[in-house]
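Re-running Adenine DNA glycosylase to confirm reproducibility after the cluster update. Everything else is unchanged from the original entry.
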Amino acid sequence: MKFSKKLITWYLQNKRAMPWRETKNPYHIWLSEIILQQTRVAQGLPYYLSFTKAFPTVFDLAKAEEEKVLKLWQGLGYYSRARNLHATAKYIAEELNGVFPSNYKELLTLKGVGDYTASAIASICYNEAVPVVDGNVYRVLSRYFNIDTPINTPKGVKEFKELAIELMDHEEPDAYNQAIMEFGALQCKPKSPYCIICPLNDSCMALKKGTVDQLPVKLKKTKIKKRYFNYIIPVINDTYTIINQRTGNGIWQGLYEFPLIESEKTDIDTIASHSLFTKMIKDKPYDIIPHNNEPIVHKLSHQHLYTRFFILKIDDESVFEASEEMILMRDVHSYPVPILIGNFIDSFFSKELTSS
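Result of re-run:
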C-alpha cells in the first residue's frame, strides 16, 4: 500500500471528532484554519465554537464591530490574524456576495490566507489536489524520508512543497491532507513519537537511521528582544480607571492597555518623574504602590516583555487631564486587551470591585 493510502487508512481509524470535520462549508473551514494557525487544537476549539455561535455566517462576522472580534479573539495571540479575519469577511460579504473563492489560486488572494490555508480550504471544500504543508507535515516528511534540510529556509520550503505535491493523493485530496496533519499531531509527535506502533515504521528512513529525534531541522530563531513595560493602573475614588487603545503597527494594535511607561528602570522615583506620569497628574496627593516586585515575563515570538504593574491611588479625579478617558472600573472587563493585561484585570480588579 502506498504512502498516501496508509495515512488515509490510519486517519479513518484514529481521527479526532472535530466540528469543522462535519462540514464542507468554506466559511467554517476557513474560520477553523485561521484560528488553528500557531494554536493547538485543544486551545483553538473553544474559540471556534465561540466564533461560530457569535457569527453563524460570514455576513454576521462582516457586520461585527472590530472590538467585538478582538474581544472574542482575546488570549489567542497574533492579533493580526483576527484583524485579517474581519477584513476578509467584509470583502467576501460585500464584494463577493458571501461566496468564497472555489480554488486554491483565488483563495490565495484573500487577506490573511497563505499557501497552507488556501490548500486546506481548496482540498477540503472543493476536492482540489493541492497539498498542505504545516509543522506536522514537515515533521512527517522529514522523518519518513530522512531529510535534514532546514524547514525554515527558502530551500527547505521549496523542497518540502515539491515533495508534498509529488505525494499528493489525487483521488482523496481532502482525506489525505487531513490525514497527514492528524498523523503528525497524534502519531509522529514532536517528542517521543510512537514509532513501535507506527503504520509507516517498516519504511521510515529516520527510524532506520536513528535520526527521528533530530528531525525536522530548524535554524535558530532571530535574537529575542527584551522590552520593559511598566503599567500605571489608576484607581480613582475606588470607582474609575483609565484605559487607552493602542495605535500604530506594533504589537497589540487596536487592543486596550493602561498607561504605559517603557523603561528598564522600574523604581517608583523613575516612574513618578516620567513625563507621561507628570502629564497625567496635577499637583495633588496620590499613592503609588508596586503590584508585583518581580517582573512578569510575557513571551512573544520575537520579544520578551518584562512587565510590572503600579497601582496609582487617587481620591480626586480632577487631577487627571484626560478625564474623558476615565471608565468605570466595573466596565474594564468588556475591553479587548492582550492576555497579559487580561490576567491582571481578572486578578486585581475582581478583588477591588469585591472589596469596594
